[in-house]
């Protein structure tokens, strides 16, 4: 191969790599979700001869460039079309009533009154502060945390550390995948992929379910949820969070870190964790266990019919099961999914962890979850 051919081949290889990078970057920016990015990477859209680009001539390289740019343009057009059609989903002009036709007694009167107050509060908040579309987001991003149970026509938005493991167990029982919620392991719940997500349907399927199914979200005091996530992921052995998050956190925020801590990622302190959380240049990205609820479930974009709270989880959950006509024998499980001997994260526990932070760090952490506090009418913590 003469020098000119070598130069052209290397140049074309670089162009092909750059185009691939541009293509993937544009797709990820459109979809804002790891699931869709993985889906894209699983598609064999790259020309077969990229791995042997040393054999390319100028004409072949031009064809690759044209192919990649056309593909990028097509994907952008499809994404924009989906988003345009999805904008039909919006808050109704008035709060729609909750279907209570299956409630046959006054046992749930107090729970129902509380539920109506929560629904009205969130609706009014979104009408007041969401009018400028500040909460709008891309199609897949808005529904990627929503699970579907078609038998009883339920959409459940998963908020980690707010009873989601037991809610998935209940959904598996409702859908006929298990006879009892008490016999389903943690791994089966989170890694079994038995439940369908809303983003797995086509546009028509998504739109129909959003407009006809009962949509539920269960939330939790943001600071309690944050501390619960820290305790679960960093105070117990974990083969994912320690090497992926722990090592990066210790490396950046711990002065004179020891070799063992740097190699294992174990032993992250709550203060170090908060430094990571508040850092605009985090060494590793966010995680659903401490992401804001407003960015997980988009409550001002999706009109949720039912708003449960972790603080009244069993009462709210069992009332919801009555509303959707669940079997009478199905009750929401009360057991703790993991680390059952640990004290549950409550106000007193949170207060102990907040003592590790400076007043500025406490205030900034509250500010980080400010929207969640407002949306769901939680009292601001001691900061």
TrEMBL record:
<keyword id="KW-0808">Transferase</keyword>
<dbReference type="InterPro" id="IPR005331">
    <property type="entry name" value="Sulfotransferase"/>
</dbReference>
<keyword id="KW-0735">Signal-anchor</keyword>
<keyword id="KW-0472">Membrane</keyword>
<keyword id="KW-0812">Transmembrane</keyword>
<protein>
    <recommendedName>
        <fullName>Carbohydrate sulfotransferase</fullName>
        <ecNumber>2.8.2.-</ecNumber>
    </recommendedName>
</protein>
<keyword id="KW-0333">Golgi apparatus</keyword>
<keyword id="KW-0325">Glycoprotein</keyword>
<dbReference type="GO" id="GO:0016051">
    <property type="term" value="P:carbohydrate biosynthetic process"/>
</dbReference>
<keyword id="KW-0119">Carbohydrate metabolism</keyword>
<dbReference type="Pfam" id="PF03567">
    <property type="entry name" value="Sulfotransfer_2"/>
</dbReference>
<dbReference type="InterPro" id="IPR018011">
    <property type="entry name" value="Carb_sulfotrans_8-10"/>
</dbReference>
<dbReference type="GO" id="GO:0006790">
    <property type="term" value="P:sulfur compound metabolic process"/>
</dbReference>
<feature type="transmembrane region" description="Helical">
    <location>
        <begin position="7"/>
        <end position="28"/>
    </location>
</feature>
<dbReference type="GO" id="GO:0030166">
    <property type="term" value="P:proteoglycan biosynthetic process"/>
</dbReference>
<comment type="similarity">
    <text>Belongs to the sulfotransferase 2 family.</text>
</comment>
<dbReference type="GO" id="GO:0001537">
    <property type="term" value="F:dermatan 4-sulfotransferase activity"/>
</dbReference>
<keyword id="KW-1133">Transmembrane helix</keyword>
<dbReference type="GO" id="GO:0000139">
    <property type="term" value="C:Golgi membrane"/>
</dbReference>
């Amino acid at each position: 191969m003469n020098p000119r051919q070598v130069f052209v081949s290397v140049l074309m290889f670089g162009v092909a790599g750059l185009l691939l990078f541009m293509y993937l970057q544009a797709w990820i920016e459109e979809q804002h979700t790891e699931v869709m990015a993985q889906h894209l990477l699983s598609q064999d859209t790259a020309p077969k001869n990229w791995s042997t680009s040393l054999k390319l001539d100028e004409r072949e390289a031009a064809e690759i460039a044209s192919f990649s740019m056309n593909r990028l343009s097509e994907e952008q057009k499809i994404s924009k079309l989906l988003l345009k059609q999805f904008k039909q989903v919006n808050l109704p002009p008035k709060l729609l009533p909750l279907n209570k036709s299956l409630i046959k007694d006054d046992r749930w009167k107090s729970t129902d009154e509380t539920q109506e107050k929560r629904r009205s509060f969130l609706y009014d908040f979104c009408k007041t502060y969401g009018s400028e579309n500040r909460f709008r987001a891309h199609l897949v991003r808005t529904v990627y945390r929503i699970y579907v149970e078609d038998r009883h026509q339920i959409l459940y938005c998963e908020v980690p550390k707010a009873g989601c493991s037991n809610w998935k167990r209940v959904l598996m029982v409702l859908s006929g995948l298990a006879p009892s919620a008490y016999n389903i392991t943690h791994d089966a719940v989170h890694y079994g992929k038995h439940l369908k997500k809303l983003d797995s349907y086509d546009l028509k399927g998504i739109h129909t379910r959003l407009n006809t199914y009962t949509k539920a979200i269960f939330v939790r005091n943001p600071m309690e949820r944050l501390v619960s996530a820290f305790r679960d992921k960093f105070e117990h052995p974990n083969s994912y969070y320690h090497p992926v998050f722990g090592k990066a956190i210790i490396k950046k925020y711990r002065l004179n870190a020891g070799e063992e801590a740097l190699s294992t990622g174990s032993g992250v302190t709550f203060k170090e964790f908060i430094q990571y959380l508040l850092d605009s240049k985090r060494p590793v990205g966010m995680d659903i266990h401490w992401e804001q609820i407003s960015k997980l479930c988009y409550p001002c974009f999706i009109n949720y019919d039912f708003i449960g709270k972790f603080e009244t989880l069993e009462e709210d959950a069992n009332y919801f099961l009555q509303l959707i006509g669940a079997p009478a024998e199905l009750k929401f499980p009360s057991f703790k999914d993991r680390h059952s001997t640990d004290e549950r994260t409550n106000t007193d526990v949170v207060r102990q962890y907040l003592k590790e932070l400076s007043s500025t760090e406490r205030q900034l952490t509250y500010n980080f979850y400010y929207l969640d506090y407002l949306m769901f009418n939680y009292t601001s913590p001691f900061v």
